[in-house]
Structures are given as C-alpha cells and as structure tokens.
Amino acid sequence: MQERHNSQYADLKGNVCNEDKTSSPADEMRLPSFQEFLELIEGDAPLRASSCDRNYAVYHKYSDGAAW
Amino acid sequence: MAFGKVSTSTQRSPWRQVNELHLHVTAACNLCCRYCYADASAGRRAQEMPEEIARTAIDEVLDQTIASVIQIIFHGGEPLLRSDDFYDEICTYALEASGKRGIGITFGMQTNLTLLTEARALLLAKYRVKLGTSLDGPQPIHDMYRGAYWDVVRGIEIARCHEIFCGPIVVVHRYNFDHMPEVLENFRTLGIAQVHCNVGAAVGRGAARLQPLSAHEIFTALCGTFEYMLATNFAVIDTKVLMMVEREIFQRHSRDQALLNCSTPFCHAGITLIAVDVDGSVFPCGCASSNAALMPFKIGQIGKASSFDRDRLHQFHMKPHTYETECTICRAQFVCYHGCPAFDATDQKTASSICESNRMFHDYLQARSSDLQSYRTFLIEKGVT
Fold it and tell me: Of all residues in chain A, what percent carry a pLDDT higher than 70?
C-alpha cells in the first residue's frame, strides 16, 4: 500500500508542478473570460489535479510536499 | 453581473471532473475559534455524517470521475472527533472501491490537531492521511482567536514523527497582521519551513467576531512576509505571497488554465472539488457550505443524481462586471487571485480591501525590483521558470 500511495502522491505532485505543458506565453498573459471557463469545465478534456489552499498539495510546488 | 448567459445544453455526470472530495464528517468541534467560518462548536456534536453517506459520496465520485487519482479530505468541524472505527471503515472502503475501478486515491484531513494521540497517529499513518492544521503565530497571538496553542504544537510533533504532517495555514487577522515576521519566525523555531497565509474573512461565526482588515493592514501583512522571506533567505516560505511574487516576476496568472485551484481567476469549487456536508448536501467547496448565508449555493445531494444544479454552480462562479471592465486592465492583475466566490459573497468589505491591497503590493514590488532578483533566483532554484 505504501508503494502505491507514493506513486499516486507523485502523480499529484507532478500534476501540480508541471503546469507548463499546455499553455502558450500568450495564454499566461491574459485573464480567462467566464465563457472560456465554462467551455473548459464543460469540455471533454480532463482538468488537472487541483490543490485547495487548505490542503497539502499546494506545498508541492515549492518543495517535496513536506513543510519542514 | 455581466454574465447573464449560462450553459445548460449538456447534461453530463456532475462529478466527472472531480478529483478532490471533501467529506464534512462532523459539524462539531472541541474548540470554538472566534472566527470559525464553519461556525463549528461542541454544541453541534450531534451532527455527524452517517457512514452510508460517506460511502455513497465516494462511490458517486469514483463512478463518475474521469480523473485517474482523487483525494479524499476529511473536514469538519473537527474530524478527529470521529472514531478510529469510522476512519478505518471509510478508508478501507475507499481503497477497495477505488482499486476496483483502477483509480488512485489519497487521503488528507484538516484538523486542529489538539486531539491527536500516538494511537490515532498510527491509524492515520496506516492510510497515509496527510494532516493540515492552523497556527496563527506564537501562543499569545494564536490564542487570541483560536486557543490551545500548545496542544496544536504537541499534535504537530506527533504527526511529524509519523510523517503525516503537511503544514499549517495562517489566518491573517487583527492580532497578527503587523507581526508577520514574528509569526513566520515562530514557525522557524518549530522547524516548519512552509506555511500558507490567508486573510481572514468575516463569515460564519467570524461575521460577528472578526473585524475585517483594511487594505493598508492587509498590505502591511504582505510586506512583512515579503521582507521576512528576503531577510532570512527564505527560511520560512509563505506559499501565498511567494506565488504572488512569482506571478509578478513572470507576469502570468496560471501556466495552465486547466489547472483550477483556489488561486486561479476561476477556482475549482464545484468542478474538480466538491464538499459534502454531514447530511449529504453538496456544495462547491467547504467555504460555501458552512454557514446559512451561503446555503443558496447548494448544488446537489448525494444519492440524488438528478439534484445537480448546474445553473447554480455557474451563478456561484460569476464575477462582477468589473472583472472584464477593470480587472483585465488592472496593473495588479498578476498578484491578484480574483477573489473567493464563497467568502466574497458574504464579506464584501474584506474582498474590497484585498483588491486595494493587491494594487498597493504591486506598486511596492515595482519599487523593489532589485530585491525581486533574489526572489527570481530562489524560484529558479526551485524549478520555477
């Protein structure tokens, strides 16, 4: 179970850390519109793993997930 | 509102994008924090999520999601008020249910840690339940709104020994906004290198007991954090301010619009994240579920697939017309998170103050361009480019 957990945890980390695979520099420079947001969430493509501010995944961006 | 049209043309599985499931396993709490947005207290002890609702919620998400991995986060109230048997059963059930479907699963818990014991830590470690907590500063500051500082510190030590501690959230409020270096230094003495600071919102119990911060007070907190990280060579990181500075340096909002979270212009609430309340009511997130003022944002009911209210979810995410007319040309658009749909709906004063403080912080960063080089170097060392 531990090995499986580590693998899944790494998947989450990867999803959070590797944010730069699909967007162009132009996309990064502008705010999305509400209509674009709707098209994104209604579309068929799976959205990336999220990370609520209240949970640990947000920390993965700058570290290995631990707070110390 | 500028966005009157919402899409209702396609009816699909409502939880198909969900990869984070919050289970509010109890409305009770052993503490009674003065600013609790969930308004949890010992007086709500009777309100616990039946195991059947938890199992059904897990099944619904696993059946509908197209995600390969989901997180289950135990929320409350105080989740450690639930028994070991409850977590043993739910975690075992979730692992078996996800395994049958070939979906990965991880667990987390948002807890005040005061009830954590060695025995409970062993159980949580068995399921690799990662624990997040709240710590607002050194004991005199922390106890102004929350209490039980030393119990939290003891809980952190237990969790850390079992490698199940993740990190604390700091709620920025009246008693710590101008003490951020002291707050962060306290974490350094505790051996904690990363925290996440959120400005307190006057919602739930806090609506009557938390005095909202002004723009200048929030700005003071941002600057204090910025200066502390710079002066200590990032001995303790506030991921919130660091992300704001990163966006300012690299002039971008998010590097992937498909990655939704609390820090993107449109957040993940109700889309990749849902929060299930003790009675099976589904809300876009925990912030939108826990007080009566936000009940209009209920988007569904576990066990009743037909109850999903897509229009209500879209209404939840709508922004004021100023988003298109002002935000898109605002000089502070990169440091800005563009609000929290849940909190902003009930505490517009704090939302307005955060907006103004973002402009002040942007101007501050512009004037500190030479110091931003230290931030840039640090971020690049961390692999952020």
Answer: 29
CA dihedral B125, B127, B130, B131 (to 10 degrees): -70
Tokens found for residue B55:
């199992």
Domain residue extents for chain B: 20-381
Nearest CB among A47, A53, A63 relative to B263 is that of: A53
Alpha-carbon gap: B303 to the closest alpha carbon of chain A (Å): 22
pTM of this prediction?
0.89
> How much is the average pLDDT of B347-358?
95
> B300-318 in b/e burial notation, b at 16+ Cβ within 10 A?
bbbeeeeebbbebbbbbbb
Q: CA B228 to CA B184: how far, in whole Å?
A: 8
pLDDT band at B200 (very low <50, low <70, confident <90, very high): very high
Q: Is any Cβ of chain B less than 8 angstroms from the Cβ of A26?
A: no
- In whole angstroms, give the CA distance from residue B299 to residue B318: 15
Q: How far is CA B344 from the centre of its chain?
A: 14
In angstroms, the separation between the Cα of residue B282 and the nearest Cα of chain A is 17
Which of B70, B71, B186, B246 to mutate: most A Cβ within 10 Å? B71
B243/A37 Cβ within 8 A: no
Pinpoint the alpha helices (H) of chain B: 51-64, 84-101, 118-126, 139-145, 149-161, 180-189, 206-209, 215-231, 239-250, 310-317, 322-325, 341-346, 348-367, 369-381
Identify the CATH class of B20-381: alpha beta
Cβ within 8 Å, pair B265-A31: yes
Reported ipTM: the value is: 0.84
Inter-helix orientation angle B215-231/B180-189, to 10°: 40
Chosen for mutation from A13, A56, A60, A63 (greatest number of chain B CBs closer than 10 Å) is A56
Span between the terminal Cα atoms of chain A, in Å: 24
